[in-house]
Amino acid sequence: MVDALTRSMRASHVLVAILVAASLAVAAFGVATNDTFYLRLATEALIFAGLALSVDILLGYTGLLSLGQALYFGLGAYLSALVLMVIPSFWAAFAATAVVAALAGLIGGFIVNRVRGVYFALITFGMAQVAAKIVYNTRALGASDGLIGVPVININLGIASVSSASPAGFFLFVLALIVILYALSAYLLDTPFGRLLIALRANEARIPFLGYRTMTPRLVAYVLAAMVAALSGALYPMLRGFVSPELFFFATSGNAVITVVTGGAGTLVGALYGSVLLTVLKSVIGSYTEHHLIVIGLLFMGAVIFLPKGLMGSVRPLIERMLAREPKQ
Amino acid sequence: MLVIRNLHTHYALSHIIQGIDLTVAAGEVFGIFGRNGVGKTTLLKTIAGWVKPTEGEITLNSERIDGLNPDRIARRGAGFVPEDRRIFPGLSVEENLTLGYLQVPGRDAAGDRAALAKVYVRFPRLAERRQQHGTTLSGGEQQMLAMARVMIGTPKLLLIDEPSEGLAPMIVADLFAIIKEMKQSGCAILLVEQNVHQALTVCDRFAVIERGQIVLSGRADNAAERDKLLTTIAV
Known about the structure:
By secondary structure, chain A is mainly alpha-helical.
């Protein structure tokens, strides 16, 4: 017999499997038609899905609205770019990003977890803005131009290698990494620790009376989210060959929040679908009008009003019901 | 077990608890009675660490706990069942129960299963509804869940605030049977309750609080003292 959260997680896994199948079909189609643009776009959607995933860990599970998750995404992107420009090794860039993101998340977590609610949102926003201004004004980091000339790398996977210049190969590699980040997050949130986070979101005042410190689980969730955001950001310079201060800007954090709310907060998979949806919409609507943000803004308002649980928050219960059905004898 | 000496608690300028002394031994139920607003719940909240005392001492098993944070007091063995139950939405009955023992030191999987099984024997209604969301239970079942969630952590001291509030008489009888079982297992219990007659079926001793002070105390098995209690609070 499985409990409510595990059943919901299984439904999310089914939806991720559907997304992976669709992605493989996209990759096959891209290879068959020798497409570059849409595969690159889909790769970017997956990278920003990682950022949205980190927002969902905080918002959907812990009830913490971060308006500054771009801080860690940008940190990961810049760090990865700097490492790649010196040592063109994916694993060196990824490892450096993981370590620095954990440290930065720990420091940031100690600062922001001292407050709750709107103050938490404002401090996360403030920290990201400070980082954005520092990067924007630091010549060694390329200032407003960012860092240009990140080399193409070959990612050694032991049995094979993938070039970051290969649209289909890099797309599949990013897909695998984002699915791994999803799986690790889902695994952690499906443990008793995940239940504790949900309880914390529901009633933080009650938790200490069961013997828990509230700071510890909040901090762990924050560090986890920081690492997921930074590791996703680390993929960005490999895709684009450059990084710019915009990655730290509020637009990046705000888009991630919109992605999660549209996709379905607290589902994890909603972050992935939301990112794909928003990236595709931006591209499709953007090809007709430069005012595409108006359309996306209206869409977001519509999603909040008519689908308050988000796209996956509305679809997932159907999958849960299917999974809950007894198998026929 | 629990010893309180000259306890004072303030809410801003309001002096709520005004010098309370009491002791509760292991395996004893101590009833706290009084009208609304006299400081009964504040007394429990002060012991549990929700509110910091401004003066006085609280010791649990000879260890000072006054001024500690609630999580540290809970880890020292004090379980608090608040009046409003506070079942966690989004979690099933079993998930709510699980949170009650995760922080217990030295636990293992076999012990966890045994603890859950024990709770389900004691609360068969919860066993039937283990996969149901906790907040979809009836009021009585939620109260049972709130008690079970604290009991599963095997507290040495149980602070229970108005467990019968708004519940059907049959459920109330069940709850008090469970309180009696806890008492027999050696748990010290401080019980705040408006239903004095029901409370006296499990209490060993009692006190009446007025304006933050104990104005009457006695033994529940002493007929004269019981009569005085009932007269004082005009039941």
